[in-house]
Amino acid sequence: MKPKVLILSLLALLTLAIDYLAELRNGYFDSKVYYGAIHYWFRGDGGMVYDWLRPGTPYGFTYPPFAGLVMSPMAMLPFGAVVVIAVIATVLTTALLVWWFAGPLLKRMPGPLWFAFGVACCAALVFEPVRETITFGQVNTLLLTLVAGDMLFGVARGRRWAGAGIGLATAIKLTPGVFILYLLITKRWRAAGVATGTAAAATLLGGAVFPNESREFWTSALWDTNRVGVLSFLSNQSERGFLARLPIAQVESKVWLACVLVTLAFWIYRVRTEPADVMGGLALTGVVGCLVSPVTWIHHCVWLMPALVRCVDTGLSRPDRRLVYLAGSAYLLMTSHLAWLWEKGPRPPLYILGGNIYVYFSLALLAWTPLVAPRPLTRPDTAPAEMSAACQRSGAG
User: Fold this and answer.
1) What is the spatial distance between Cα 37 and Cα 57, in angstroms, rounded to a whole number?
2) What is the pLDDT of residue 377?
3) Cα separation, 258 vs 268, whole angstroms
């Protein structure tokens, strides 16, 4: 068997294995919620999408009406087709993200590029947040692709449309809105305006088509935390989830607010030290979004991928390998499923450590993910000579 065929076969088998595990573990739970809500909304008795709850659970549709408009084709498809499309989309977007984030690193690796890329894709699919995205039938890698594509090919290159992808992702799910804040604090005013305008236009479109649903979402459904789950559940690996698992119920919300302010202040300090490093900004903003959100399920932690890759890429180019060790240990422990040993409840004292693995590594990545200054087009010591030579060749000077 040819090596390329072998890698493709391994990717296909890995996808099928994760798909099989989906039925055993999460059973495409979130896709079933989306599917049931959209069918109820578009093909039911005319009820409002936020009235529908999955039978036997408190879980319902938690996204803005514009997201429902984007998902409306589900109403015409059988559930099996929705699952197939979701799995294929997650695998393809994961491969695309691997190429965007790790492409320069992979090109420096010994051996054929296609082999390194295939291995990296396998490693990304095994990463627990990506696995959980597949087994829940979630949209995380699709949103990350929208934002990352915008940041790397729009914002980094100063395109006129920069910010559109961030705005669209924010209109679908509110949490990517933290990237609009990133654009503001790095003084990318035009991109911030495009992102805000895109998000507002998409939201107004949803409001124009579904005025009652929009009113219900912004005044009621958005604030109903019971629709998304219990904050103290182990899968909530945000700072709020960490605090909710501590015996401080009376002051939890106040402590959480203080933690959010401190975390955001430190993030602002970090991204402003090297605002030209867009990939670094993407990495740090993805991390801070996971930390400060009230609910960050483990499958949401696909937003940590840029930071992990940046640590490995930078660490391998330096004599100091501590960044590689940080990213490697984070990847291994996150992928190991170790945190779920504490799913049934507290088992002190290790519960505080093992039950918050993602939180601790997110804080470490926020602190130590490196920012890199862009390389100058020419070395300062040679620039005048090169400019003089160019002028002589052109007949100027």
Assistant:
1) 13
2) 45
3) 15
